[in-house]
Amino acid sequence: MAELTTRVQANPGLILRAEKLGRTVPAKILVAEASFEVCKGETLAIVGPSGSGKTSLLRLLNRLDEPTNGTVYLQGVDYRQIAPRDLRRRVGMVMQRPYLFPGSVADNLQFGPRQRGEILSDERVEQLLAGVGLAGYRLRDVANLSGGEAQRVSFARSLANGPEVLLLDEPTSALDEDSKREVETIVQQVGREPGIPCVLVTHDAAQAVRLAQRALVLEGGRIVRSGAVEEVLGA
Amino acid sequence: MLKSIFSGQLQLGLAQAALAALAALAVVVLAERRGMHLVSELVIAMIRGLVQIVVAGSILLLLLRGPSWTSVFLLAAMIVAAGATSARRAKGMPEAFRVSTWAIACGAGSVIAVMTLLGVIDTPITALVPVGSMLIANAMNTNGLALNRFRSDVLAHVGEIETALALGADGNSSVAPYVQVSFEASLIPAIDSLRSLGIVWIPGLMAGMLLSGARPLYAAIYQFVVLAIIFAASGLTSLVSTLLMRTRVMSAAEQLILRPGQPAAGS
């Protein structure tokens, strides 16, 4: 712990650190001894074949699942010391499917802040929507959105919580090529402008190269390679 | 027709039970041909039901002359059995038996106690046990419906629930829509029973009271009383059950425990 505090002091850009993180369920190791860091403004890709534990690892980072060993430090603090609700506000997540709640686009963006008794101003909602290329969509019913638009709303909804890091679980896997490019542009913007680091799970090595600076390759729940994305993925 | 063949009441009863069981079996055999497999479950349920009711009748016969307080133990045993039965409708739900038993005890048990103290239910064992058992049985059905609906709704909406959690919602509010739907759906039969009372059906209790010489108006009013307290017991059971289950599907760290294909879905 003291060592980690020293590391955070030495590298103020260090946002998230997984330390020997693992999850084992009866008769199966989902994730084993995963250790890595994520720094401000960078995108870390987690790649690997289907069933390699990518999503399982991502779900451990915001404690949607409980690690059976190891832990995660968020800004140097063991995340088990942070209330789960607060942790998940600070570690945002965009899922494979957008799972929008019935109602308007604005209702969806207000969901996270409302959990803490906060209300976003209309201007802030418009600003978040403009950031994902959906200016003017505030009052639209989510039932009438395309798949790409819905996923962009889900991005804006996560950003409305003001996260310190964003977890992306194959956010483009259910989208057509055009929508995929739009969402990729948002990922690049998020890392560049607000400087929010992203952890991107993808099975698409080319996408990892386009979006990430570093990559981890998972096989059987274990990290088998890690480093600069071009080196790791041989681009 | 049967009465002309069987002179003894017991033989007549067994013959009537056999014919009734045949009618039920015929329906499930018909359903089986259309791919709906219920035969084994129905046969077991019918044999169990017959044995249980005969045993219960025999015990009642033994207890008839006993003091009223013995009915408390009988009703408590019924609550535990009801908890075990309705818990089977919630396979995979954590602590389903404990939740069901507590819910039925709180719902049916408290309504029986209060109504008995107020004099709405008579204290002699011959009145308290049959009326109490009606409340417990209906609470059991409502509890089974509530748990079954809650379980299937949660399993069908894992993505939505985990999205809410991932956005910082607490466990209770993440599953709140499914608690509400389960509660409402579980009470549909009880509401429909009240709504159709006297029009679609004249319940057995009223028929029994009429046969035993009660005044028709009192029998009718008392039937309404019984259905109203059945609703109260069922509603309270469902409320307690869904609220307890809401906490059981979440871990202390507000992680959804009830998910299809545990461990964690995804890659």
The most extensive interface between chains reads:
A-B, 41 and 23 residues
Strand order of the largest sheet of chain A: 6-7-8-3-9-10
Oligomer: heterodimer
Number of strands of chain A: 10
Shape of chain B: globular
| Biggest sheet layout of chain B | none
Strand fraction of chain B equals under 5%
Amount of helix of chain B: over 70%
What is the beta-strand fraction of chain A? 25-35%
Please characterize this protein's 3D structure.
The complex is a heterodimer of chains A (235) and B (267). Helix content of chain A is 37%, strand content 27%. Chain A is an alpha/beta fold and 235 residues long. Chain B is mainly α. Chain B is 75% helix and 0% strand. The chains are: A alpha/beta (235), B mainly alpha (267). At the A-B interface, helix 2, helix 3, helix 4 and helix 6 of A face helix 7 of B.
Search tags:
heterodimer, A: alpha/beta, four-stranded antiparallel beta sheet, 9 helices, globular, B: 267 residues, mainly alpha, 11 helices
Q: Topology of this structure?
A:
The complex is a heterodimer of chains A (235) and B (267).
Chain A: H1 2-10, E1 14-25, E2 28-39, E3 43-47, H2 54-61, E4 69-74, E5 77-78, H3 84-90, E6 91-94, H4 105-115, H5 122-131, H6 147-159, E7 165-169, H7 177-192, E8 198-202, H8 205-211, E9 214-219, E10 222-228, H9 229-233
Parallel strand pairs in A: 3-8, 3-9, 6-7, 7-8
Antiparallel strand pairs in A: 1-2, 1-4, 4-5, 9-10
Chain B: H1 2-5, H2 9-33, H3 39-63, H4 70-87, H5 96-118, H6 125-156, H7 158-166, H8 171-186, H9 188-195, H10 204-211, H11 216-248
Helix pairs in contact in B: 2-3, 4-5, 4-6, 5-6, 5-11, 6-8, 6-11, 7-8, 8-11, 9-11, 10-11
